[in-house]
Amino acid sequence: MADQQPEKTTAPAADAPEPQPTAVTNTDTPKETTETTEPQPENKNETTTAQPAVETTAAQPTAVEIPAEADKAPVEGQQSPQATEEKPVVEQPEQPAYLAKNPALAQFVERLPAIVSSTGHAEMWGVPLKDQNDAPTVNVLIKFLRANEGNVKLAEEQLTKALKWRKEVNPSALAESTSYSATKFGGLGYLTVYKEANGAETVVTWNIYGGVKNINTTFGDMDEFVKWRVALMELAVKELKMAEATSVIDYDGEDPYQMIQVHDYLNVSFLRLNPAIKAATKKTIEVFTTAYPELLREKFFVNVPAIMGWMFAAMKVFLSKNTTRKFHPISNGANLAREFPSLKEQFPKVYGGSAPALQEGARTVNLTQDEPAPAAPEAATNEQPKEQAKEKKDEDVAQEESKPESAPEQPKAEPAVTAQEAPAADAK
């Protein structure tokens, strides 16, 4: 049997050209036939009569019928190059350089759509929050990230709280369309903008706590005091013009979108003990720490009394080390202008400059004069029935006529009543 096996293998091969004469001329066919028949010799006990080579060859297309691409088809189980080319190639947008070198900022930017969606508010300091290609938007995120020392999770939490607060309070309206009592807040806060020789602007807010006329009147309503303080801050933020930014600030470099704050405590000697002032100060610090991070370049405490130590200790609890390093206490307010040599002449004279007083040239929030309290006699007359008022008038006339001519005139009650009501009106 072993001697006859080659005859059975070669016999069909000799007959193959008769039904397929063109297979001889097709140089590609042996390649296909070889690939098909290579596994056959592995089982020598199998006869080739069941699957003759002629039938295998006949099942394959002729050289004329085979397309040119057929020779390039891969074996089963592999993906053809043609199928790979048909898939669309999605090109990733090129990442800006300021994100490529700061992975934390890039991650924070990616989280922005989710933050805006969860808060339902997309505005911060007058800047509509958009995407990674919008310079004002990225500058806002940089400030929140800086305030949290690069911690993306903490920055996201703070931005979320700040957006919710702005949505609820609407601080822009507090500055633009809300008026405040001149009796309570007149002369306590101002805004100035000083220009450098190169055109740069320095925004300064002034808080004149020595101008408080009545502690309970100004600080008694804590929420009202915070709103007034926020309104002054919003006026200053608007002057920073963050929405007009055309380039992204350097994360580790200087930030031109910051302001100077001056707190004047001349003639202030009550801050340590008064609970209303301490509560209002604490609430203001909490709001500003959350909603206005990295907007402060430097803060100067001028004409500071010795008892102000508790306030600096309180600020260190709520503010970061980077922020507290910006605080500068100055015992004599006349030395303030020395801190700004290029702007010295623009500061008011009382602070060491040459400009007029703040009351004459600085801006402030919208103030309205309080309506005077109604006269006491009119209120008394309105409360009494007409008949009783008439009887009392007749009685007064009778008493007046019965007085001796030499008797001195009695003082009227109106001034005394008005004087007694004045403190009550201030306490509202």
UniProtKB/TrEMBL annotation:
InterPro entries: CRAL-TRIO_dom, CRAL-TRIO_dom_sf, CRAL/TRIO_N_dom, CRAL/TRIO_N_dom_sf, Sfh5. It is a peripheral membrane protein. It is found in: Cytoplasm; Endoplasmic reticulum membrane; Microsome membrane. One of its GO terms (cellular component) is plasma membrane. Its cofactor is heme b. GO terms for molecular function: metal ion binding; phosphatidylinositol transfer activity. Residues 1-93, 370-428 are annotated as: Disordered. Residues 36-49, 371-380 have a biased composition (Low complexity). Pfam families: CRAL_TRIO (PF00650), CRAL_TRIO_N (PF03765). GO terms for biological process: Golgi to plasma membrane protein transport; regulation of exocytosis. Keywords: Cytoplasm, Endoplasmic reticulum, Heme, Iron, Lipid transport, Membrane, Metal-binding, Microsome, Transport. Residues 223-359 form the CRAL-TRIO domain. It catalyses: a 1,2-diacyl-sn-glycero-3-phospho-(1D-myo-inositol)(in) = a 1,2-diacyl-sn-glycero-3-phospho-(1D-myo-inositol)(out). Residues 384-406 have a biased composition (Basic and acidic residues). Non-classical phosphatidylinositol (PtdIns) transfer protein (PITP), which exhibits PtdIns-binding/transfer activity in the absence of detectable PtdCho-binding/transfer activity. Regulates PtdIns(4,5)P2 homeostasis at the plasma membrane. Heme-binding protein that may play a role in organic oxidant-induced stress responses. Belongs to the SFH5 family. This is Phosphatidylinositol transfer protein SFH5. The lineage of its organism: Eukaryota, Fungi, Dikarya, Ascomycota, Pezizomycotina.
